[in-house]
Amino acid sequence: MRELGQAPRGRGRGRGRGRQQQPLGGPAGDTALTTFFPESGGAAGAQQQQQQQQRQDSVRENDEIEAQLGFVRYQEGPERLGWLINMHATSLVDDLGVERSAVDYYFLEADGGTFKSTVLFRPYFYVVCAAGREGDVEAWVARKFERVEAVERVEREDLQMANHLSGAKRQLVKLEFLNVQDLLSVRRELQPLAKRNARQRQVVSAYAEEGEGEVEEAVLELREFDVPYYLRVAIDMHVRVGLWYDVKAEHGAVTLRRRDDLVQRAEPVVLAFDIETTKLPLKFPDAQTDMIMMISYMVDGQGYLITNREVVSQDIEDFEYSPTQEYLGP
Q1: DSSP H/E element including 105
Q2: Is the pLDDT of residue 108 over 60?
């Protein structure tokens, strides 16, 4: 069984070098991470701080709502066992005032209780470089971008390589960040550079492969920069909804360990619903002009129907519908 939640190792630099993972001192919750691109200058810095404060206010508000719904954050105490039912990207501010990206995981316990836990994970993407220039690009990125938390060279399978079936791998430069906003900021600068170099490479491909020229010309492509953050974490940490995990909090760091021996599913309360609306022929419904006709929903196998009397004037008698024996209707 693999233990999850440990921060990846690499060549650290900048604001987080040499620091241990900080305790989850501030509240965190499910929040949409707003995309912004910080620029130099006092006004831009003030705007960045304002946007960060708005995100954290939204985090606190969501955290309070989820606590009222039974999902209190677990960050200390005995190890807990939970069946994972959902995950959301979030962010938190550590004791040094640095914003860090994380994922909230929501669990259902065997006795019907609920809780959530927050796992820190550094977002990242890869840079494809001209052959033999990986070290130059690594050093250049470390000097140029303060927002890059760690840089390292890694080997990955590349299906675009002509000999990838032979087991050959490509060397890539991996850039890690403390939060998604820093990733987006650096991506914004590197992506036009990579596209320009790719166009030049089509004209003089041999020159690009030889690894000559300025170091900026060796940046050829960005990889996996568009993977949603919570999916990136789930892929790398092998976390899947609908499985049992031992959740352990130690010194403020939360780790998840999958329980392969538990195969029986939990019994969550399931709500399913469907909304029917009016619409024009061959058109999609328009919220400005169309009305809701009816809403049907089921809770734990019991079905209900709500109708709009302006559209459906007659009563609808009870009925049963079971498409298969496996999915019995009300």
Answers
A1: strand 99-108
A2: yes
Q: In 281-308, which positions are buried (b, 16+ CB within 10 angstroms) versus exposed (e)?
A: eeeeeeeeeeebbeeeeeeeeeeeeebe
Give dist(CA 145, CA 171) in Å, integer: 21
Q: With CA atoms as reference, report the closest residue to 62 among 107, 5, 104.
A: 104
- The DSSP letter of residue 73 is B
Cβ–Cβ under 8 Å, residues 290 and 308: no
CA distance 297 to 269: 13
Burial class (CB in 10 A: 0-12, 13-18, 19+), 40: exposed
d(CA 297, CA 317): 16
Average pLDDT over residues 40-65: 78
Summarised one tens digit per residue, pLDDT across range 273-292 is 999 999 999 999 999 999 99
DSSP 305-318: EEE-TTT--S----
Torsions phi, psi for 270 (to 5 deg): -105, 130
Residues in CB range of 317: below 8 A, 6 or more apart: none
CB 10 within 8 A of CB 61: no
- Whether residue 174 contacts residue 224, with contact meaning beta carbons closer than 8 Å, is answered with no
